[in-house]
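[job 0412] stage=fold_complex status=start
inputs:
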Amino acid sequence: MPSQEIIIEVSNVSTSFGQHKVHDNVSLEVKRAEIFALIGGSGSGKSTLLREMMLLHRPDSGKIKVHGVDLTNITEAQGQSLRQHWGVMFQHGGLFGSLTIQENVGLPLREHTDLPDSLINELAEWKLSMVGLQSGVYGQYPSELSGGMLKRASLARALALDPDLLFLDEPTSGLDPISAGEIDTLILKLRDMFGLTILMVTHDLDTLWQVSDRVAVLANTKVEALGSMLELSVSKVESVRQFFDGKRGRSAYAQEQKISELHI
Amino acid sequence: MKLMPMNAAAFSMNALPNLAFSGAWVTSKLFDMAEKIHGMPRIAELNIIADGSEIEALDMSGAWVMHSVLNRLSTQGKTITYKGFKPEFAERLEIVAHEFNRHANASRDIKITPPSWLEQIGITATKALKEAKDLLSFVGEVSLMIVASIINPSRIRWRPILYNIREAGFNAIPIVGVLAFLLGVVVAYQSADQLRNYGANIFVVDLIGISMLREFAPLIAAVIIAGRSGSAYAAQIGTMSVTEEIDAMRVLGIVPMEMLVLPKLIGMVISLPLLTVWADMLGIFGGMLTAKTQLDVSFVDFIGRLVKAVEMTTYTVGLGKAFVFAIIITMIGCFQGFRTHGGADSVGRQTTRSVVQSIFLVIVADALFSVLFSILKI
Ligand SMILES: Nc1ncnc2c1ncn2[C@@H]1O[C@H](COP(=O)(O)OP(=O)(O)OP(=O)(O)O)[C@@H](O)[C@H]1O
Ligand SMILES: [Mg+2]
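[job 0412] stage=fold_complex status=done
writing structure:
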């Protein structure tokens, strides 16, 4: 389904925090309507790379292009227009504590469009029901919700402006398997129906098998492997093997095998 | 592709029964579409042909709004046939139609009516009473804690106590000193004229000595510390309870009161009286300078008179007050901190409350002391 048009282009990006080198000449490309996953151990710099792609952090060297716009010397106006084309779901939600869930989702629409309040509320409610939240919680504040509900609400806010590029930092972590499955389905539906490009960080093997088109493995400051899950599962690279050969990796792989056998 | 300019979303009913959609039906291009839909004229045709051949783009919100145009027509009993929609656009419209109906059928939330003014008074009153009760039980809990640590002194945490003495006491020395000095200058200055008229210049010493030691020094020190440290206590404990650190302490078997409140209380009970002594000195020094320049009372005369005019009890009454103020400020700061629930804005709210309440209670306590002392004739 992905087309050949390149939406995100990361070339030779290096980042360090003080003495601590996080990325060393990292390069990758994400195509339109692709579901691209970043994986890697804790602290391998996935969130940092994501932050660099969404103008929250500047790499020390290298170039990142989003929608063909070079982020290195971008003007404020260009930045603003780019920001309206992407939606972000943060690892820890990032919802505003002083606003209700519904106001949180409506906020980007209030800021960036002239739509009337009634329509904004309608759209916000729809987005919230789309991510599987019951109408009882729309009026509640983030501090009153469970971790999983916060994830969903955060995803709904990311979808508020109908972005064509979606950044998801650990969308299914902290969710029960059924909710995680629902989020997987939603991600696939968004891509298939609305042609969204999705870049996500995840450790969830099920999500990776179910939805990702291509996966990049970040380890030892580099992209150590890049390809579909099937390609990676036969890779010989050490850091990739660690990922698949763990007990959980094997069981997810076995399940995947069974499912594909059933389909044949 | 998306960054290329797009035309605004529009629909035209000029060539009925053709209803022609055009432009980009995306969130950023909808503009005042809602009003246009609202102002749609009633039409006679029964069969409408929706023409989607000119649509440049269609996103979720766009599809939602487009569906509300079509929905308006179909509720008027029109039959709609679709023409020229790209397959993916048609599919999106279909999804939205499904959602739209579900949304419309969903039971609407019960309207919440704001409470009447009478109810409002009741709510506020019960809240205030509940808060007072909570404060009382908080004080009780802390008292038990104090008794427990007197019985078992090894549980007292000395390091945080010293830290608190430095933060709340030592670091506040400059600001308390400057303000007490200025207060002394102002009080002496204001009384200088009157005293000179009566030739009672030397009585400026009585005035400064008693007012400073008894009232102003403890009060100015307490107000500064309430703003400086009381707020910091509320903010620290509040942030910790928002980030579940307090819960983590409880789970780890650490009593938050013992860890967070007791060292602050002991530190403050030591610091504030000492700061008051400092404020006494600087306030009287300020008065002394003014007395010399305005009233020709020399330093030697001033000190000589001060020893005679001011009794020891005046001084100890001031220190006693400072001791009570220290307890009030710490208790309110910590109490409001522990009452923080929710997010970041709640921390701000509780911090403000802590400052307002502790200054309020300090002044109320001061007034009560005056009444009490006049009855006891101290
Ligand atoms: N603002 C910062 N200052 C200093 N070091 C930082 C900062 N942000 C991140 N780091 C460091 O960079 C490294 C990568 O962090 P990052 O958050 O990108 O990891 P991650 O791959 O997202 O890990 P996780 O899977 O645990 O979320 C870590 O070692 C972290 O300590
Ligand atoms: Mg991370």
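[job 0412] summary: Chain B has three domains: 10-109, 113-155, 157-376.
[job 0412] exit 0
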